[in-house]
Amino acid sequence: MASSSAFNLFLLSIAFFSLSCLSASLASSTKSQPFILPIKKDPSTNLFYTSLGIGTPRQNFNLVIDVAGENLWYDCDKNYNSSSYIPINCNTKTCPFIGCTGCNGPYKPGCTNNTCPANTFNTFAEYLFGGGLGEDFIYISQEKITGLLTACVETDSFSSFNPLTGLPKGTKGIIGLANSQLALPTQLASSNNLPPKFSLCLPSSNNLGFTNLVVKDVSKFVFQTTPLIVNPVATGPVSEEGVASKEYFIDVKSVKIDGHVLNLKPSLLSIDNKGNGGTKISTTTPFTELESTVYKTFIRDFFKKASDRRLKKVASVEPFEACFDSNTIGNSWPTIDLVLQGGVQWTIHGANSIIIAKKNVACLAFVDGGTEPRMSFVKASIVIGGYQLQDNLLEFDLASSKLSFSSSLLLQNETCSHS
Ligand SMILES: *[C@@H]1O[C@H](CO)[C@@H](O)[C@H](O)[C@H]1NC(C)=O
Ligand SMILES: *[C@@H]1O[C@H](CO)[C@@H](O)[C@H](O)[C@H]1NC(C)=O
Ligand SMILES: *[C@@H]1O[C@H](CO)[C@@H](O)[C@H](O)[C@H]1NC(C)=O
Predict the structure, then answer these.
(1) Is there a domain that residue 238 lies in?
(2) Residue 10 — very low, low, confident or very high, per pLDDT cuts 50/70/90?
(3) For the whole model, what pTM was predicted?
(4) Which of 89, 280, 380, 416 is the most exposed place for a label (fewest CB within 10 A)?
(5) What is the Cα–Cα distance from 175 to 63, expressed in whole angstroms?
(6) Which ligand 3 atom is at minimum distance from the Cα of 413?
């Protein structure tokens, strides 16, 4: 908001969450049709975004999809002045956070007094930005929805830092799909009296994917199911004592390349008492990142299996290390399996692991994630990224804490294109 740099919060460490009273305030909508948003992939950042309408007059916003994002936030720049915007008053039951934000004016969305604060987090920006919580019309597939809470941030008010840093050109915020009260799937499920469950089908570059924010019917695709794990330690940029992470973790028990189990210390794959380790799903990580120790073993074994298959190694192409002469691949490429809790396997085939990095060079689309966390206090060992998720249908069932996944839809002669 315009008033001050006080909203330039970096790694705040206060516990200010109390979300229990939020759902009562949501207006209920009578329709219960699916809320489907189209998804496109931005070729220059490899991030995914959707488009929805907000406010009066309706303005369309391209918003980046972030499964770790806790709310929907958008850019209330100086030209934006929706007449249907209602700021949420601080110190009311609807406001899940402690404190109030204010602004010197003139009044507009993003510049209001006595407003409930809301964080606008972007993993690519170096800071956590403060915005205001508000309510306005949201348009999803031509349907006008009322009563949804979103965060609005006046980006013009931050002189040297921009909350939109690193996001694709033309995108104006983030739609968060995390396991949190302010995420749209949670709000929509609550206002429609449905259990929170959403699906996500990220497109490859020449495809149009979708997310269905409220899923009721069983899909026609073949699924496997694994529990969603709760990391008991907050994994966002705010350290909150005793508050669990709202991100989606799954329990990878082992990793296989061509059926051979990688020799990884089991402690690396589980979540320790500080919240480090484990495997999470991230749509803002373009390529799966493996913590350095895991990565070294993974790459060494991949090279070995590639050599068994007589793939010809060529010079690396940043940020990828394992690169091969694409003419030597044919139909032969090592298969990667994530062995999950419940005995199921997430198989990653070539379509989700080969990237043509330049002419005649095919690389393994996994990267070294280093040892240090980014914009967080904790670090996951495996971060499953967008390239490995695309053309895989995922269903996140928050009521029963389960993730259903299809593995590559291409094997079922399908893609994420929504018909
Ligand atoms: C925004 O619109 C309101 C009326 O809806 C008006 O009072 C206010 O001055 C406008 N703000 C700006 C910055 O134009
Ligand atoms: C907020 O309150 C201050 C102090 O009363 C006032 O100067 C300012 O104009 C108000 N801001 C808005 C957006 O109304
Ligand atoms: C997919 O299509 C191919 C070629 O058209 C066919 O041979 C194969 O049986 C199909 N697979 C499935 C699962 O439908």
Answers:
(1) yes
(2) very low
(3) 0.89
(4) 89
(5) 6
(6) 1
Determine the straight-line distance between the first and last CA of the chain, rounded to whole angstroms. 41
Question: What's the angle, vertex CA 78, arms to CA 238 and CA 48, rounded to 5?
Answer: 55
Q: List the single range of 155-159, 232-236, 299-303 with lowest mean pLDDT.
A: 155-159
Closest C-alpha to ligand 2, atom 3: 104
Query: Same structural domain for residues 24 and 171?
Result: yes
The lowest-confidence range among 22-31, 32-41, 108-117 is: 22-31
Is residue 222 in contact with ligand 3, taking CB distance under 6 Å?
A: no
DSSP string, 67-132: TT--SEEEE--TT---TT-EEPBTTSTT--BSS-B---SS-BTTB-SSB-EEEEE-TTSSSEEEEE
Do 235 and 148 belong to one domain? no
* Residue 215 covered by a domain: no
How far, in Å, is the centroid of ligand 1 from the Cα of 109? Answer: 9
CATH number, residue 271: 2.40.70.10
Residues 323 and 225 occupy one common structural domain? yes
Q: Are residues 318 and 184 in the same domain?
A: no
The ligand whose atoms approach the alpha carbon of 108 most closely is: 1
Distance 110 CA to ligand 2 centre (A): 13
- Ligand 1 pocket, residue 83 CB under 6 Å: yes
Question: Which amino acid residue places its CA nearest to atom 8 of ligand 1?
Answer: 107
CA of 413 to the centre of ligand 3 (A): 6
Residue 308, domain extent:
221-412
Whether omega before 106 lies within 30 degrees of 0, making that bond cis, reads yes
Q: How far is the CA of 227 from the centre of ligand 3 (A)?
A: 30
